[in-house]
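Appendix C reproduces, verbatim, an entry submitted by the partner laboratory led by Prof. M.T., so that reviewers can inspect both the input and the predicted structure.
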Amino acid sequence: MGFLVLLNQSVLPIFIILAVAYIYFRVYQPDIKQLVNISLYTFSPAVVFNSLIKEGIGFSEIFKYLVLMVLVTAALMALGYIGAKLLRLSKTDVILFVMSVSMINIGNFGVPLIFFTYGQEGIYPSILTFISFNLPLVTIAIYLASGEPTIKGNVKDVLKIPIFHAAILALIIASFEIPVPEVIMKVTGFLGQAAFPFMIFILGLQLATIKLNPGLIKAALASVGIKLVAAPFVIAAILGFMSFEGLSYSVALIQLSGPSAILPLMYAIRFGRNADLLAAAILLSTALSAITLPIVIYFAG
């Protein structure tokens, strides 16, 4: 059941969009960086803001999940760094490799998966996980992708991307129960609906530019091995240490065992990096998660 749900509801639609984008790039040769800017400055901030406000989740409700986020992100970044060093990757590819391992596709992949697995009952812990693990995506991932030689320069690049501002603003509004005009929610809701498919489309465009070589394939497969095979055991250990149990344990384990996030690819393109390794890792981890996630779901209960 888990395999069929993933194939029909999550994986297959993603690959159809990737195929359309691949063909589109071959025919029209669009400016990928310009499309990335559209995503980062309009659709993505809208979906982050709307999701946080709609669920009405502030800092107090989310504290335990924020601690979980810090521990899991740090552990996965360490695994990614060790793996990259063992592969003797270049300095640029080390950063891409670390992001591919530590940044999780918890939104357009993770949230629907939890709904299909546990129904409405699993949505609340799923949203808490989604919000918490969006924070490294709008801070650490931008910082790493920036490539600025100084901390000050990296921080400036983080502040240039409005996703970070949207997340902080929404958390403040939710924490202090500040009313948001209905028109703002409608506009961000409409824009947010385009965010995830547009990011997948950009991934397809980027994949059309990749020139595969043995080194790239080896690194991408290594990333996927850490991401989908080793990471769930690390995450399960951290969840146990933090006394997660029952449905909250199952939801977090499944959602955090998903494929690599797409947003870091947007950042890498935005800041002019060669993102082939990251794009390949995202594609492979998305495809192979159709095999690994049903196993995680089975053991999560």
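The chain has a mean pLDDT of 88. Additional entries are available on request from the coordinating office.
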